[in-house]
Amino acid sequence: MPDLSGIVKAYDIRGVVGEQLDAALVRDLGSAFALLIKPESDAIVIGHDMRDSSPELSAAFADGVTSQGLDVVTIGLASTDQLYFASGSLNLPGAMFTASHNPAKYNGIKLCRSGAAPVGQDSGLAEIRDTVEQGVPAFVGQRGSVTEKDVLTDYAAYLRKLVDLSGSRPLKVVVDAGNGMGGHTVPTVFAGLPIEVVPMYFELDGTFPNHEANPLDPKNIVDLQAKVREESADAGLAFDGDADRCFVVDERGEPVSPSAITALVAVRELEKEPGGTIIHNLITSKGVPEIVAEHGGKPVRTRVGHSFIKGEMAKTGAIFGGEHSAHYYFRDFWRADTGMLAALHVLAALGEQSGPLSELTAEYSRYAASGEINSTVDDQVARMMAVKDAFGARDGVEIDELDGLTVRLPGGGWFNLRPSNTEPLLRLNVEAADAEAVRALTEDVLAIVRG
């Protein structure tokens, strides 16, 4: 029996093509997914990114689905949020072939139920894994059919309906697609808007010849920062490989924190629906719940991870949610994450007033932050307990363990220390009043973690 524990992750399936993933295995995964969703749907929609292996693997998955008697609708090249749009608008379960920002040798599958509802370990992935490991039962009956449907134009029109840029002043925006799916979606989404797009790396190339398609790593936005300054642009946008995340830089080429974007978009959504609930994970800036509350909203804090965000949005009826990783979730987009919609909100807010983006986002950037710092450790639990004991002994310190260890200090500074689910790492995020306070607190914690 195959062992899929190395590729079935918390939220998706991901592995090295030819070593961990091949067409035969993916066909079985398609069959297993079909068995999982048969009680609720008679068809599945499938999209794929620009990786060399994606067309073959997505076709193998479709073969597995149809072998179980279900139909397939293929949308071809797509961003992940374009697949979510297809799942939501067609009311079909979906499969997206992508490894997001991972290197070229990887590929993977993100799965969702009808209406873009997430499929994770606790909501179907473990069952799919078990079915494949034990041997997928054969279906006796008529095979399903495969049809093609282009949803890119409808996807773009839907986003433009949610954010009106018709009254915006003309803007010049540099967009770094990282040779990923942003190069496929941006031209259609931005068509007809009062925005001059300066494209960077729009050529679809799953080998990522220019830089990794991971805009959260500072080295991957260096080209974008330089181009924004060179072009005297109003803003810069960087998308990851499957274009579901968007990172923003201002007119100076300076990064705008995802927390500030979360707060900005939250305020705009609250203008449309006063008193609405806004979800933020526990690593976003404490400025986010402060700003949400000041604008009459109800901030709700969750664990890190899209399944927790989407679950809490469903439970509370939240209108919007944001994560430190530049994932942004919208109730009006089936509670799914779409960096493109967040980008349109930022540009609309910028275009509605005359000041620069740095001035606009300064209102939403109240504190200094470390960014995520990873430490390789032998014993995650022991190191976290050492930190808990050390800080718990101090006066006025508050500790909670919703997700890892969150420690709040009397002076307003705080940090979160979480174990990685897949690597022997502890992830540290620190926030305080200013850069010096962040540095001091970071050194304090790391001395214990790495000691």
Automatic annotation (TrEMBL):
GO-annotated molecular function: intramolecular phosphotransferase activity; metal ion binding
Domain Alpha-D-phosphohexomutase alpha/beta/alpha residue range list: 8-134, 154-253, 260-367
UniProt keyword terms in alphabetical order: Isomerase, Magnesium, Metal-binding, Phosphoprotein
Cofactor(s) of this protein: Mg(2+)
InterPro entries the UniProt entry points to: A-D-PHexomutase_a/b/a-I (IPR005844), A-D-PHexomutase_a/b/a-I/II/III (IPR016055), A-D-PHexomutase_a/b/a-II (IPR005845), A-D-PHexomutase_a/b/a-III (IPR005846), A-D-PHexomutase_C (IPR005843), A-D-PHexomutase_C_sf (IPR036900), Alpha-D-phosphohexomutase_SF (IPR005841)
GO biological process: carbohydrate metabolic process
Domain Alpha-D-phosphohexomutase C-terminal span(s) in chain numbering: 372-446
Stored Pfam families: PGM_PMM_I, PGM_PMM_II, PGM_PMM_III, PGM_PMM_IV
NCBIfam families with a match to the protein in the record: PRK09542.1
Family label: Belongs to the phosphohexose mutase family.
Protein name: Phosphomannomutase/phosphoglucomutase
Originating organism: Amycolatopsis coloradensis
